[in-house]
Amino acid sequence: MSGKKLSLHLHKAGHDPRAAALVALTQTLFAGADSQAALDGVLSSAALMPTDKRLCTEITYGTLRWYLRLKEFSERFLSRPDKLPDEMRLALITALYEMAFLRVPHHGPVGWAVKHVANRFGKGLSGVANGALRSMQRGLKDFHSPDLPLATRYAMPEWLITLWMTSYGETATLALLEAAQSVPPSGLRLNRARPGWIDARDSLLRENADSAQVVGASALAFHGPLPWQAKELIKEGRASRQSAASYEALEAFSPALWPQPLWDCCAGRGGKTLALLEQGIPVALASDPSAHRLEGLGKEYARLGLTAPPCPPVLAVAAESVTETFGTILVDAPCSGLGTLARHPEIRLRRTPEDLDSLAATQRRILEAAWPCLRSGGCLIYLTCTLNPAENQDQITAFTATHPDAMHKGAFHTPFDSPLREFFYGAMLERR
Which residues participate in catalysis according to the annotation? Predict the structure, then answer.
């Protein structure tokens, strides 16, 4: 799609789940918003019933996951699609998603899209929309052809499939492609600083036996939406939302054994800092170059009732600005995010091979800046949420090759057949 400015009337989405999904998709595809943030904003402002919110969510994430395939197919039935309004083309794509993937009568999405185009762009283009959608409907057998090229079948860029095939082999790549097109589980981390967290965990397991699994000591993955009991725990400060795969990667390195003091040097919004504090593991410093990311950490600290250890100083700084030394440095490095395509499907539409090279260079700079702040005998924990050797094992191999005082003490990666549907890498380095 072109980058022409859209003039979507956002106020009309208030009671219409399809229009609300179109707003979230517009913000994601054309304004560069994070899909989860865009959807959360729409759902919080729209007056939608619970069933309508579920439909809005399904259309938003489903369209993003299958966008490349939907776009390619829809353009077969449009003459000069680049001359049509972006909003119109996106409305047709969302209608095609419903027809191709949801068990809904086709007249629903078709009728909605035609009416929306008529209201926004007039009868002439509504006729174009109606004809194109009817043709798409008749051609759905071709849309689901088993003979589609791999990139089309999985709506994935060719370069990414090539990267995974070269790095991990065909079997693993097919598993990763299937995972990327799946709905990831909802993750919940129980607050171990609050009494009764074990009872709360076990109660959730009993009441959701068909959908829940334990991850580590205090996290759960729900294969479906969070149950109402989990949402109540979050309101009470007894739990937090967290990707179960992310929690699993952190726990793989036994944080309770890390030497003190501890610096979370790429803290982001502070999720891992809070997870550590809940376990009684003091975090001496949590920092991030973005002050905006750290803004909510104080509120979360209060919500969770973390009275001991003391709240860590939170600074918006680059690693190069820190002069103290630490027993442990946690580097949750900025990365290409290719392990989180199920949860953030828009990443596949934004990343380029050049981005991967740039991010690998940024990671090297962070490691170089943080390493002098690590005490002898201390450990550096390196984490990413990507599937790219240059950002993962190759990064660590290159670092140890140029730092004789760095010993590689262990690594972790989420198994390619993990039901958690997200993939993390981690490594532990010890300083001699």
Answer: 385
